[in-house]
Amino acid sequence: TFARWPAAGVAGTLATGARTPREAIPAPRAAPEEAWLRWATGATGLPLVDATLRQLHATGFASNRARQNAASLLAKDLALDWRLGAELFQWLLADHDLGANWGNWAYFAGAGTDPRNRHFR
Questions:
Q1: Would you tell me which of 18, 86, 92, 93 could form a disulfide with 24, CB atoms 3.0–4.6 Å apart?
Q2: Is 117 helix (H, G, I), strand (E, B) or coil?
């Protein structure tokens, strides 16, 4: 199913009380530790990312697209070090492969020589 976001002005639509997905993202400059904990525990208020992290904690698995979205949120929107996410996934993924995990995280974060600015939404 797809989430439908209500019209602006309807308060309390997400778990955080935010009206839109962008409002649910904590400000990384104000409290990076809080932003990290909310992301890592699946409490961002963004349903896809939250479900991904909760599923990962519970089962050790997450789909490729869900992993991409979670990585993009951490590295691009929260502006936190992508290596934090790579390390967390390293320990949680049942199908972990060292090269694939760290290589994909670097790719999603834009580290390296690839000139494209990838942002998965």
A1: 18
A2: coil
